[in-house]
Amino acid sequence: MWARYISNKIQSGTTTFTTFFKKAATNSATINPEDLPFPEFSEIATSANKMLTDRIQAEKRLQQSESRLKKAQSVARIGNWKYDILTGKVWGSEEAFSIYGIKRTSPLLPLDRVQACTTDRLRVNKVLVDLINENRKYDIEFEIHQEIGGKVKWVHSIAELELKNGVPTKIIGIIKFPILTIH
Question: Could you tell me the domains of the chain?
Answer without folding.
Answer: 2-67 (no CATH), 77-176 (3.30.450.20)
